[in-house]
Amino acid sequence: MAGAILAGVATLTCGPRPGTEAAVPALGSQSQLPGGPPPPRGGLNLPSLAVAWSPPTLTAGDVEALAEALKASPAVEVLLGPGLAGWDARVGPALQALSPTLRVTSVRQAEQAAIVARPEALVAAREPGSGRPRYRADGLQLQETWLQRHDPSARSIVSVDAATIDLSAWKALPAARVGGCEPAIRALAEGQEQGLAQLEGFLNHADALLWRFYSAELAAFVPEIYAELRAFAGEEVPTEPDAKARFECGRAYWEHVQPYAACSSADQCAVAPRVVLSAGGARVAAPEPALALSDRCPMLVGRDYPGELRQLGLDAAEAATAALDRDWSALADRLGAVAEVHAVLEDICTPRRWRFAAADLTEARGRLARVGDLLASPELAQPQAGWRVEASDLFVPGAGPMRQLARFDPGPAAVNHSIGAEARALREFVLSRAQCRAGHDPRPMSVLVADAESGRARFFGYLYAEELVCADLPPLGRE
User: Fold this and answer.
1) Per-residue pLDDT for the chain (479 aa), expressed as one digit of tens each?
2) Contact (CB, 8 A) for 249 and 299
3) Bridge-partner residues for 455, per DSSP?
4) Where is this region: Disordered (predicted)?
């Protein structure tokens, strides 16, 4: 169920639905509507967003496997490749963070390919399995002549250098990551599902009410329009230029009116207005047939038929929304904000090469939890809240282009506004607190740990530079 909900979490399209028998209600935004649900007693019943999550970091390897190899020796000599200038004072503390008892005897420069017996073995295959990548170190052996020159106080050699890999082949490998937002996205999806269940009666009633007014508008005006445009239904096209231009306009109008003339019920009407819940909140919107016409058409034909048809929807939206309960409308508008929260999570939860301090991760989780508290707020409609008839173009993911006919305005001090603002602030916080997110070499680092006596490799693998050394952060663990 969560997966199905997530597929539409960006925008909730609420209709058409099975009809509810709704009489035309008396005006009054807080009264119980005939055929509608009783007024709500509180806010949306949504789950908490105070869950464990973190913006995922791309990873090339497994520092825990490196830590296991380091624990086998109390003292190591570190060899850095020629491109790692500035790492001399940083790599030792990074390795000691993985193995606290480790002692670094010396740090000096040496190209990794120059210290192994078979440099071609430095290109390792990824081991199968899920989790962080590990690599096979088969056939890796340090050169015997080089072993005779190493620091005698070191029991192991740690070599770090830029990986000698085929970059296109590397990019073709499946991406691996540390961290993720699945608990937060799952909680948000469950909240969407629960919110829709809570609002179902109101949304069904709102759509039925919209159809009641809209069908009356269609019955009153479309037959006349249809009859007038029937003259353009023929196949014979005039040859005189002005008559031909007029005919082409009329023929386009004739085709445009067909979906309106075909409406027999809300379920069978492709252009019926309905309530949609999007990132912008609660809207009344209707699909509108595409129409490409010359600006001269209304003058040539004598009427602006598309404009008149559009006005039918606006009139129906005005009449229906004036009678909708403002408290339910406010809650529907609030549930629409789930789409913006999801968009923020989708952005900051795209795996990237970046790192975060533990305190910043805690703060990010706290900010999302506060967004969840706002979504579940018991606040109902503010005194200034109400529906506003307002036409504009609207793109609804999953439904495509629509024409907005009305929108719900929750009022300037409503908690609904705070949800979007807090979600956007969460995005800005995460992006601003990310560390080591720029200037990356697309190639990973190649890390080799070998026994100083036998020369046999105990570990070989790849790590992105920021996984091992990033500001004052420890190597990238599970987070």
Assistant:
1) 222 222 344 444 433 333 222 223 333 333 344 568 999 999 999 999 999 999 999 999 999 999 999 998 899 999 999 989 889 999 999 999 999 999 999 999 999 999 999 898 888 889 988 889 999 877 899 998 888 888 888 999 999 999 999 999 999 999 999 999 999 999 999 999 999 999 999 999 999 999 999 999 999 999 999 999 999 998 788 889 889 999 999 999 999 999 999 999 988 999 999 999 988 899 999 999 988 888 899 999 999 999 999 999 999 999 999 999 999 999 999 999 999 999 999 999 999 999 999 999 999 999 999 999 999 999 999 999 999 999 999 998 888 899 999 999 999 999 999 999 999 999 999 999 999 998 889 999 999 999 998 999 999 999 999 999 999 999 998 65
2) no
3) none
4) 21-45
Calculated CA dihedral for residues 89, 94, 99, 104, nearest 10 degrees: -20
Using alpha carbons, select from 98, 108, 30, 32 the residue that is nearest to residue 68.
Answer: 98
Left, alpha or beta for 129 (phi > 0: left; psi -120 to 50: alpha)?
A: left
pTM, two decimal places: 0.85
Residue type, 62: D
Tokens for 401?
């282009």
Q: Chain centroid to CA 40: how far? A: 30
**Three-class HEC string of the chain:** CHHHHHHCCCCEEECCCCCCCCCCCCCCCCCCCCCCCCCCCCCCCCCCCCCCCEEEEEECCCHHHHHHHHCCCCEEEEEECCCCCCCHHHHHHHHHHHCCCCEEEEEEECCHHHCECCHHHHCCCECCCCCCCCECCCCCEECHHHHCCCCCCCCEEEEEEECCCCHHHHHHCCCEEEEECHHHHHHHHHHHHHHHHHHHHHHHHHHHHHHHHHHHHHHHHHHHHHHHHHHHCCCCCCCCHHHHHHHHHHHHHHHHHHHHHCCCCCCCCCCCCEEEEECCEEEEEECCCCCCCCCCHHHHHCCCHHHHHHHHHHHHHHHHHCCCCHHHHHHHHHHHHHHHHHHHHHHHCCCECCECCHHHHHHHHHHHHHHHHHHCCCCCCCCCCEEEEEEEEEEECCCEEEEEEEEEECCCCCHHHHHHHHHHHHHHHHHHHCECCCCCCCCCEEEEEEECCCCEEEEEEEECHHHHCECCECCCCCC
